[in-house]
Amino acid sequence: MAASDLILDRLAALHPRKIDLSLDRMHRILAALGNPERRLPPVVHVAGTNGKGSTVAYLRAITEAAGRRAHVYTSPHLVRFHERIRLADENGTSKLVGEAELAAALEECERANAGAPITIFEITTAAAFLIFSRHPADLLLLEVGLGGRLDATNVIDRPAATIITPISMDHAQYLGDTIELIAAEKAGIIKRGVACIVARQPRAAEQVIARAAARLAAPLSISGQDWHAGEERGRLVYQDEHGLMDLPMPRLLGRHQIENAGAAIATLGHLPFAVDEAAVATAMQTVDWPARMQPLRVGPIADAAPANADIWLDGGHNPAAGEVLAAALAELEERNPRPVYLVSGMLTSKDASGFFTPFAGLVREVVTVPIPDVEASFDPVELAADAARAGLSARVAASVEEALASLPRDEPARVLICGSLYLAGHVLRIQETVPQ
């Protein structure tokens, strides 16, 4: 076991609750560390229910294509913790934080915290800020962990810009049981006088965001009003008050990625450096974000499936994600029809029936599986019952490999492995694919 893993295990014991939203503990440890959050590169802070990571991935690709350097902070990780902290290097690219530097920063935070209660996400976010503060970069792309208003990342007084990606129902036990309450938590990242880019939202969420921005005199740039992104003749066309960009379609699959790319492009005018259209075009073709409609064409997972199966991996896990994934599968079906199967595992905190409902009429069968080593994973029998309640034929398997091996072999299938980022991480470990 790596040294950082041992330290993370110790730190996880400092607070009995994994999620306890508050900024008090964060301010305390940052002060003890000498306030590294005040020594960061310009920050773009990203909140929302779905699309946060993809939007960050587009901004990173654009920044690097423009010859600039970007640090990136995202969560959760898929295979190993290091994925959460990506450091810009002098060559204009980036790499995951090294083991020695991560372990040293975690130990430094552990000493500064001196045994006081603090959640694992708070203390690791403090460690990330410490690391970022010690490496020069042109930008820090900072993804919210949960919510926004009381999230550990929300200690940046003056970001360069904020982004709110599409909001939907998720984490209701922490953020509230209405779209308005959840939107209010997400809008908590808006800062006085700082531009906020808003992706397409439910009307109720957009109204909450608009009121929050008005209170803080924060200019809004809203999808469908101030900027537009769409597909025309197989190209991504982006337009705002500054003009029009005619771009390649994003490398990431699904029409929802057009909106994510649009939100990233709408942010460019608020960055501390200029980006030309050529850099944006390059980024659309180079962007990478694992476990978001990721094709699995070779490796142990492909080997376990019937010959010529078309296998995809996505970590989407809420009803809104189910909608965009069903739309992405429908788009694939239009191009090349095949019988469609889901292999799915989920956490018990998720709305499983709501996730499965959009697939009714599209998917031939759902095969439910456990997520190894995750206590909060649905029992596959219970998850299959939820899929059946959503109108889908469902059965269980003991593992992803067993589920794939059990699929019919008389015609080439299309398979989406989905329902949880933890399941996606498990699949990538089987593939021996570690994000770099």
TrEMBL record:
Nucleotide-binding keyword on record: yes
Cofactors: Mg(2+)
Entry's Gene Ontology molecular function annotations: ATP binding; dihydrofolate synthase activity; metal ion binding; tetrahydrofolylpolyglutamate synthase activity
Alphabetical UniProt keywords: ATP-binding, Folate biosynthesis, Ligase, Magnesium, Metal-binding, Nucleotide-binding
E.C. designation(s): 6.3.2.12, 6.3.2.17
Principal EC category: ligase
GO term, biological process aspect, one: tetrahydrofolate biosynthetic process
Protein's UniProt name: Dihydrofolate synthase/folylpolyglutamate synthase
Recorded catalytic activity of this chain's protein: 10-formyltetrahydrofolyl-(gamma-L-Glu)(n) + L-glutamate + ATP = 10-formyltetrahydrofolyl-(gamma-L-Glu)(n+1) + ADP + phosphate + H(+); (6R)-5,10-methylenetetrahydrofolyl-(gamma-L-Glu)(n) + L-glutamate + ATP = (6R)-5,10-methylenetetrahydrofolyl-(gamma-L-Glu)(n+1) + ADP + phosphate + H(+); (6S)-5,6,7,8-tetrahydrofolyl-(gamma-L-Glu)(n) + L-glutamate + ATP = (6S)-5,6,7,8-tetrahydrofolyl-(gamma-L-Glu)(n+1) + ADP + phosphate + H(+); 7,8-dihydropteroate + L-glutamate + ATP = 7,8-dihydrofolate + ADP + phosphate + H(+)
Example of a GO cellular component annotation carried by this entry: cytoplasm
Mur ligase central domain sequence ranges: 46-267
Keyword presence, Disulfide bond: no
Native organism: Tepidamorphus gemmatus
Free-text function comment from the UniProt entry: Functions in two distinct reactions of the de novo folate biosynthetic pathway. Catalyzes the addition of a glutamate residue to dihydropteroate (7,8-dihydropteroate or H2Pte) to form dihydrofolate (7,8-dihydrofolate monoglutamate or H2Pte-Glu). Also catalyzes successive additions of L-glutamate to tetrahydrofolate or 10-formyltetrahydrofolate or 5,10-methylenetetrahydrofolate, leading to folylpolyglutamate derivatives.
